[in-house]
Write a structure and sequence with these properties.
Elements lengths: L2 H15 L3 E5 L25 H14 L5 H14 L3 E6 L4 E7 L5 H11 L7 E5 L4 E2 L15 E8 L17 H4 L4 H5 L15 H4 L24
GO molecular function: ATPase binding
Protein name: Plant UBX domain-containing protein 1
Keywords: Ubl conjugation pathway
Length: 233
C-alpha cells in the first residue's frame, strides 16, 4: 500500500468516527495478564510502580510547598488549560492491540466510551476501562479529560466485565472490528512520503570558500656596501 492510499484510509476513518484514530500492535512484554476469559481480578501488586510515577508525584508535592493565593492558582490553572488543545488517549486491549484517538481536553469520558462502542467487535457485551498503577476503574463518565489528568495524553486499559456478562469471550476473538484493525500501521506508511531535500543550491566550491591567498612579503634587496668617506685605510 502506498502512502497516498494510507492517508486516504486514515482520512476516511476520521470522517466515519468523527476524530483521528490510529491502531498499532504493542509488544508482548507490555501485555498484561488480563485474560478476557479469566474471571479473577488481578491484585494491585501486579502493577509495578515505576520511577516515572515516583518523580511525577514528587514534583507535584514540591509545587504544593509554595504558598499561592487562590486567585493566582486559578489564573495559572486557566493558563495551563488554555494551552492544551488536544488529549491523545491510547486504549490498550488484552490482545496486544492499541487504539489511539484524539479528543479535546474539555470532552468527557463518555465520549471515549461512545467511541469504544463503535469500534469494538462485540459492543453488546458489557465492558469497563481502567488505569494503572494502581488499578482503578473509571466510573465517572461526566469528568472531562483535563480534570482527570488525561491531557495532553493518557493510557487506559479495556476489559470485558465478566461479572455482568452472560457468557465467556473467546480468547481468539478480536477486540476491535475488522475495518478498524485494517488501519494498523497505516500512520507509518503515510509518513514515508517526505519532501525531498532541495538540491538546487549547490555547495560552494573550494575556490569560493577558501580564504584569499596571503601574499608573501619579499625582503628588500640588499644595498651595495660602500665605505664611508671618513674611513681611511
Amino acid at each position: 500500500m502506498d502512502s497516498q492510499l494510507a492517508q486516504e484510509k486514515l482520512a476516511a476513518a476520521k470522517q466515519t468516527y468523527g476524530r483521528e484514530i490510529r491502531v498499532f500492535e504493542t509488544t508482548t512484554s507490555s501485555q498484561t495478564s488480563n485474560d478476557p476469559t479469566n474471571d479473577e481480578e488481578l491484585p494491585d501488586e501486579f502493577y509495578e510502580f515505576t520511577a516515572e510515577d515516583y518523580y511525577r508525584i514528587l514534583a507535584t508535592k514540591k509545587e504544593d510547598k509554595y504558598l499561592k493565593t487562590k486567585k493566582i492558582r486559578q489564573a495559572e490553572e486557566a493558563a495551563r488549560r488554555s494551552r492544551m488543545t488536544k488529549a491523545v488517549i491510547r486504549v490498550r486491549f488484552p490482545d496486544n492491540h492499541t487504539l489511539e484517538a484524539t479528543f479535546h481536553p474539555s470532552e468527557t469520558m463518555q465520549s471515549l466510551v461512545d467511541l469504544l462502542m463503535r469500534v469494538v467487535a462485540q459492543p453488546d457485551l458489557p465492558f469497563y476501562i481502567y488505569t494503572t498503577p494502581p488499578k482503578k476503574q473509571i466510573t465517572d463518565m461526566s469528568q472531562d479529560f483535563y480534570s482527570a489528568g488525561f491531557a495532553p495524553g493518557a493510557i487506559v486499559y479495556f476489559s470485558y466485565d465478566q461479572s455482568r456478562g452472560d457468557g465467556g469471550v473467546a480468547a481468539s476473538s478480536p477486540f476491535l472490528k475488522e475495518e478498524v484493525l485494517s488501519l494498523k500501521g497505516l500512520e507509518l506508511i503515510a509518513e514515508q512520503e517526505k519532501p525531498e531535500v532541495n538540491q538546487g543550491a549547490a555547495e560552494p566550491t573550494a575556490a569560493a570558500t577558501a580564504p584569499p591567498p596571503v601574499q608573501e612579503r619579499k625582503p628588500a634587496a640588499d644595498k651595495k656596501m660602500t665605505k664611508p668617506k671618513w674611513l681611511k685605510m
